[in-house]
Amino acid sequence: MAPLATARQLPPVADPAAALHTWEPRSTALGAYLHLPFCVERCGYCSFNTAPYEPGAMDRFLRALVAEIDLVARASWSRSISLRTVFFGGGTPSLAAPEELAAILQRLRDRFGLADGAEITVECNPESASLERFTGYRHAGVTRLSLGVQSLDDRLLPTLGRLHSSSGARHAFETARAAGFDNISVDLIYGLPGLDLDTWDRTVREVLAWSPDHLSAYGLTLDEGSLWHARGVTGLPPEDLVAQQYWRLAELARDAGFEHYEVSNYAGPGRRSLHNQIYWRAEEYLGLGPGACGYLGEVRYSNVKPVERYCVLVEQRQPPIASHEALTPRQRLSERLILGLRTRDGIAAELMEERLALERGRLPDVLDSWRDRGLLAQHNGRVYLSEAGFLLSDSLFVELL
Question: Is 185 left (phi over 0), alpha (psi -120 to 50) or beta?
């Protein structure tokens, strides 16, 4: 997770092992994000840290990941914490075999401990689905699957770099249910090249008909690091059509009984993502794997991205930390505001007052304008965005920085 404002930049970590001892968490219950970078094919829109899939490279990497867990567990505070969420992201984590994920989870239990009822999520591509694999994940301790469907348009899927079909996506969901998973999230993307409103409507309706427990839907962004950012892409829909797709999703999800609890996330009753709420509440988490980011104490840090460099460092028994920064009080406040306003719960009103006390610019007028337009509201000591405010939130967040 990237920092949201300018922090006090620190010099490179001369002794990462020693630094880990000093970054003592404020909380005893953390999340853990583990990045598995391998993909069979890189999607054009993806800006995450990925690497070509090779079985030999996966074997070496997984040994290094377990070794990194051991390195972090040497920190003096490691025995005083437990993990309440674990999230395997990527990349395509579902390329890992059940026994491989089981070994990683066992090492996390041995080194840090897992809280009772811990949420353990694995991102899965539909083409990775099999009853044997998904049943193995459940037996390993995985409690939640996140299916990267993105689209059900068989015309669009190949242009995105996806390897599944619409029928394959539906089969993956059915297979996850057959394997015993009662907490399944589906990912979709709107604003895609060539995506019209009727096609989007059909996609959302079909996915909702599957009765998932959670739905994540993101507007396409051409972030630096993606192939589409580097090469360009044609056929992007105009902003008004993207807005229509957002509103259609929000209406259909509401009618299906989903809570729009975060800008891009909808949950069935009691099915909010516990792990992602750690991010949105500016709470602490470990980052493990190449390019993974973590947050401990008042320090955000990130690991080296190249898989080869990551493996070499860990094999040399060096924590693979590439950079870190100490958050200033102003940045901590800005992050709490921005992350909190991404959620339906919003923020405590006193936090906004604290931010306004620092202001010598136009923020008070901006907030008044948003209230007048029905984009921002306050009730029972909480400040929160409306549905329309979610859609326009990025422009407000710039002001809060």
Answer: beta
Within the chain, all domains assigned CATH 3.80.30.20 are found at 8-280
Average pLDDT over residues 143-162: 96
C-alpha 179/C-alpha 184 separation (Å) is: 11
Query: Residue 88 corresponds to which tokens in the numbers above?
Result: 């395997």
- Per-position b or e across 203-215, b if 16+ CB within 10 A of its CB: bbeebbebebbbb
Which pairing describes strands 265-267 and 259-262: parallel, antiparallel, or unpaired?
A: antiparallel
According to DSSP, the β-strands at 51-52 and 265-267 are unpaired
- Range with the poorest average pLDDT among 78-82, 92-96, 212-216, 353-357: 353-357
pLDDT tens digits along 353-369? 999 988 767 889 999 99
Query: Residue 325: which region, alpha, beta or left (left: phi > 0; alpha: psi -120 to 50)?
Result: beta
Alpha-carbon distances of 269 from 116, 125, 184, 258, 337, rounded to whole Å: 21, 25, 13, 7, 25
Mean pLDDT of the residues in the chain: 93
Burial 52-62 (b: 16+ CB within 10 A, else e): eeeeebbeebb
State whether CATH 3.80.30.20 applies to domain 8-280.
yes
Mind listing the pLDDT tens digit for each residue in 306-355? 999 999 999 999 999 999 999 898 889 999 999 999 999 999 999 999 99
In Å, how far are 9, 18, 112, 161, 399 from 318, measured between CA atoms?
22, 10, 19, 35, 40
Distance of alpha carbon 275 from alpha carbon 87, whole angstroms: 7
- Tell me what pLDDT residue 197 has: 98
Would you tell me how many other CB atoms lie within 10 Å of the CB of residue 386?
Answer: 15
CATH of 328-401, one of 3.40.1000, 3.20.14, 1.10.10, 2.120.10: 1.10.10
Which of these, 137, 119, 120, 134, lies nearest to 176 by C-alpha position?
A: 134
Comparing C-alpha atoms, which of 111, 105, 117, 104 is closest to residue 79?
111
Pick from 84, 29, 28: which is nearest to 275 by CA? 84
pLDDT of residue 7: 38
Tens of pLDDT, residue by residue over 168-187, are 999 999 999 999 999 999 99
Sorting pLDDT into bands at 50, 70 and 90, what band is 213?
very high
What 8-state DSSP symbol labels residue 191?
Answer: S
